[in-house]
Design goal:
The protein is 1% helix and 48% strand. The chain is mainly beta. The strands form seven sheets. It has a five-stranded antiparallel β-sheet, with no helix packed on it. Strands 2, 3, 28, 29 and 30 form a five-stranded antiparallel β-sheet that branches. The chain has a four-stranded antiparallel β-sheet with strand order 4-5-6-7, with no helix packed on it. It is globular.
Length: 321
């Protein structure tokens, strides 16, 4: 059973509250991203409890708008945010690892045993086992009629009515860690071997190494022409619709989550309680935003002026500009 809140911190805590990193990009493809336009740097709130008392670390977070988020924690619970406060946690049947929402009336959460639960705006459905004995590490939904979930070496897709049979899309000793879909005809999944696999609406590509020697922890694709992945060494890797650039070091710690709204706006969180705002997969501004928990676990940005981040103690922070 995967316990995300026991991840080791890979670098010392950045002592300054706000740092602009200026690592030398590795190769011309990476260097070109640094010229992208930057958005206003978000101002972050103090950490506030999403759960009282805390029920445990948040495993995943999805915010389709400023007025709705859903989060899942390690202790089989889901909670929702209305833009002002969080609901009481609702207990479910299994440990939830992932969640994706397209609106306040549709979310899908995945658990550690291949089960999914659906939210209709009021209640969560009973668990449906769709990938037996697979940890559904990540889910990405673009509409009520399309979702992709990954776990182990397999992926499953949802057409609005049924889930497909699990399809093996990866190989190797490490498992798939994340998936992000821009539409029903474009998704990217990443794994612990530094590989990316692309979906075109019907088939998955052969795995391609984009980050040799590192484990990719998250990926975000706001469009078919831009994705950014992050790894356990502090690197970001950008995709321009045709190829992946060389990794760019944007942080000194392992990155846990990334949310991009465009090719010029991404926000990542790390294992040292920092948030990193970058113009795409490039260096940017590092801010220490959480003096309570030892690490941040998830971030979701529905717009370029609003993000929510959560930590290992189920506290949340709102970034706005």
């Amino acid at each position: 059973m995967r316990i995300r809140w026991n991840r080791a911190v890979t670098a010392s805590v950045l002592s300054m509250g706000c740092v602009t990193l200026a690592f030398m990009p590795q190769g011309a493809a990476s260097a070109s991203t640094t010229a992208a336009r930057t958005s206003s740097v978000l101002t972050w709130s103090e950490p506030l409890p999403a759960e009282t008392p805390s029920q445990g670390p948040i495993n995943a977070l999805s915010c389709p708008s400023k007025k709705f988020c859903a989060a899942v924690n390690y202790f089989n619970q889901v909670l929702t945010f209305n833009g002002r406060k969080w609901s009481a946690p609702v207990s479910t049947s299994e440990e939830l690892l992932s969640v994706s929402c397209t609106s306040a009336k549709f979310c899908v959460a995945g658990d550690g045993y291949g089960g999914v639960e659906t939210y209709n705006g009021k209640t969560w459905s009973a668990v449906e086992t769709v990938a037996p004995d697979q940890q559904l590490a990540s889910i990405s939904c673009t509409s009520t009629a399309f979702c992709v979930a990954v776990g182990g070496l397999t992926a499953i897709t949802y057409n609005g009515t049924n889930w497909s049979a699990p399809a093996v899309i990866d190989s190797g000793t490490n498992q798939l860690t994340a998936v992000s879909c821009a539409s029903s005809t474009f998704c990217v999944a990443v794994d612990g071997n530094g590989q990316a696999i692309t979906y075109n609406g019907s088939t998955w590509s052969t795995p391609s190494v984009i980050d040799s020697g590192y484990s990719l922890s998250a990926v975000s694709c706001p469009s078919a022409k831009f994705c950014a992945g992050v790894d356990d060494y502090g690197n970001a890797i950008g995709y321009n619709g045709a190829k992946w650039a060389d990794p760019v070091r944007i942080d000194t710690s392992a990155l846990a989550s990334i949310s991009c709204r465009s090719s010029t706006f991404c926000v990542s969180v790390d294992n040292d309680s920092n948030v990193i705002q970058t113009p795409g997969a490039a260096t940017g501004t590092v801010q220490s935003i959480d003096d309570i928990a030892p690490f941040l676990t998830a971030v979701s940005c529905p717009t370029t002026t609003f993000c929510v981040a959560m930590d290992g103690f189920a506290d949340y922070m709102v970034g706005s500009s």
